[in-house]
Amino acid sequence: MNRLPSLTAVRYFAVAARWLSFTVAARELHVTQGAVSRMVQALESDLGVQLFSRNGRWISLTPAGKVYYEKVSQGLRQIEAAGTLVRKSTEEDVLSIVVNEGFATLWLVPKLPEFRSRHPDILVNLLGSDPDSAGEAAALAIRYGTPPWPGCVATRLPVSTTLGVVCSPQLQQLTRLRRPDDLVGRPLLAYTGGKRDYWKEYFEKLDLPVPDMAQSPRFPQLLMLREAALSGIGFALVPLFLVEAELEAGRLVRALPQTVEPDHAYYVTHPKGADLDERVHAFKKWLIARTKAAPKHGEKA
């Protein structure tokens, strides 16, 4: 007889797999690291297969773990979407928005109190899932890429997505880079969570050879990439508007003046033919105005 594994264990596994860290997963789940580890071990025992490779403080997904993560993530997103569809708010008008975690955590969430103060009757519910798999769970989606997207109406957000190299002030003092080719041989932090290679795009647009990054630390989330840069372990290439608070506070600095303009941008989308209500119009109007007001950065290459 087929037996379903514990949904709690599957959820703990999915969060740990997304972050590739039991410690970070424990923080998100508000439990101890040991609880996450025990749940994952119980799931592995239940399935009869190893999902993670453990190497000291670091973990990585085994081939079986990658397949399992891909499949259960889809299932968990469907469960989340189903819950959103049937959940009714008795006190507030809920507006659900699908957005990737980098844009949400580094830019949108800190600014939501401003929207809330202007529209106290609208509760924004952020869904950190793939816009293409969210279905009807959300009224709006914020996407990075290039339209068209099937079945969607897209409006470009007027925010500068300029890519620039940032690092900690201490690392800047130690290295004192002058031009982009000074980055060769330096610790470059790689972002692996998107469909595009920022460093490859940066060097190619500057007509420079793309350095070998086989030994570069890799981070699947922009939040993790930012924390790594803040810690001083290397240079990060990021859309500068996403780290504007750290740049203004001096916690991060521009390692080089040269920037590049990526081939893609952020868009707010909604399903084609959808009946947009006042909540959607209010948030979309605020989002466009707020992104337009974001600071422009740097010298173009």
Automatic annotation (TrEMBL):
Keywords: DNA-binding, Transcription, Transcription regulation. GO terms for molecular function: DNA-binding transcription factor activity; sequence-specific DNA binding. Pfam families: HTH_1 (PF00126), LysR_substrate (PF03466). The keyword Transcription applies. CDD domains: PBP2_GcdR_TrpI_HvrB_AmpR_like. GO terms for biological process: DNA-templated transcription. Residues 5-62 form the HTH lysR-type domain. PROSITE patterns: HTH_LYSR. The keyword Transcription applies. SUPFAM superfamilies: Periplasmic binding protein-like II, Winged helix' DNA-binding domain. InterPro entries: LysR-type_TF_proteobact-type (IPR058163), LysR_HTH_N (IPR000847), LysR_subst-bd (IPR005119), WH-like_DNA-bd_sf (IPR036388), WH_DNA-bd_sf (IPR036390). Belongs to the LysR transcriptional regulatory family. This is Transcriptional regulator. It comes from Cupriavidus lacunae.
